[in-house]
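Data card: per-record layout.
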Amino acid sequence: MKNIMTLLGVLITLSLCAQDPDIRVHLYTNYVFEDGFEVFNSNTNFYNGVIEDGFQWGVGIENKIHPVMGVELKYIRQDTEIPVNYYSLFDVNRVIDASVNYIMIGGTRYSAPRTSDSKVEGYGGFSVGAVVYDNKEPVSGEPNTITKFAWGLKLGANVWVNPKVALKFQGSVLSAVQAWGGSFYLGTGGTGTAVNTFSTLYQFSLGGGLVFRLGE
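The structure for this 216-residue chain is written out next.
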C-alpha cells in the first residue's frame, strides 16, 4: 500500500505544479454493505463466504478538464473480516482478516458548470481499475494478496460551504469478478481441488466526505 500512497502523492504534487490548475482533492468516508460470493461445482468442490459490512475510507485527486467534466484517480480501503466455507479434504470454516483496496481511475460528469453562486453541484461517474485483497494472516500455502479487475459507479452531490470547501454526499457501487477458488484458500488443506467458476462481488456504499478545491 505504500506504493499506492506514494503514487497519489506524486500526482498531487504534479497537479499543483501545473499551469493554472483546476484541481480537487476528495476525502471519502462511507458505510459499505456486506455482500456474499458463492461457487458450487459439487459437494467436494465449493467455496462461499461474505465480505462483511463496515467502514470504508479513501482519497482522490481530480483534474477538471472541462467545466462539467473531471478525471479522478482514487484509492478506497476497507479493513474487514471475511468468513468463508470451503472443502479441502473436509469441510472447512475460517475467518480471513483482510483489507480490500480499490485503485480506480475514471470520469465525473457534473450537472452544470460551477459558478460563484452555485451551492449544490450534482454529479455522476464511472471508473475502472483494480481491487487488491490483502490477506493479513495467511495460513501455510496461502498468498498474501490477490488482484482483480474492478469497476465502479457513483452518484451524489457536493454542497459548497465556501468557494474552496464542500461537503460530499454520495452513493456508489464497486464491483469485481472474483475467482475465489484457488485464491485465498489454495493449499491450506493440501488438496488439488480447483474451482474455475467466477463469482461477481458488488459492494454498495453510502456516505460522504469533503472536497477541497485547489485551483482558481
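Known properties of this structure: Residues 29 and 79 are 13 Å apart (CA to CA). The two ends are 32 Å apart (CA to CA).

See the next section for split statistics.
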